[in-house]
Design a protein that fits this description.
Number of helices: 2
Helix content: over 70%
Radius of gyration: 19 Å
Structural class: mainly alpha
Shape: rod-shaped
Distance between the termini: 17 Å
Largest sheet: none
Strand content: under 5%
Order of helices and strands: HH
Number of strands: 0
Length: 85
């Protein structure tokens, strides 16, 4: 793939990853709270909240991964003139 193609692909992944993070939020290190599910009500509601938390965790990591992958696609092209390659 050409340099321009890699730049476009990297930018595209960055935009998609940014949109995913905008909707789902960045990954949170301490998302779980011990009493949160106890106060949530019925067991069905607790299961629904656990599914929602799992989806949030997965989608936020996917968004962050897309941004990192887009950055890694653009990095060699940006470093080429600096390194004299």
């Amino acid at each position: 793939m050409s340099e321009a193609g890699l730049n476009v692909a990297g930018l595209f992944l960055n935009v998609i990853g940014g949109l995913v993070i905008f909707v789902w939020g960045p990954p949170q290190p301490g998302f779980k709270q011990q009493d949160f599910y106890v106060e949530a009500g019925t067991p069905e509601r607790q299961a629904e909240l656990k599914r929602l938390e799992r989806r949030h965790r997965i989608m936020s990591r996917v968004g962050l991964g897309l941004i990192i992958l887009g950055f890694l696609l653009q990095l060699p092209i940006a470093l080429r003139p600096v390194l004299g390659i």
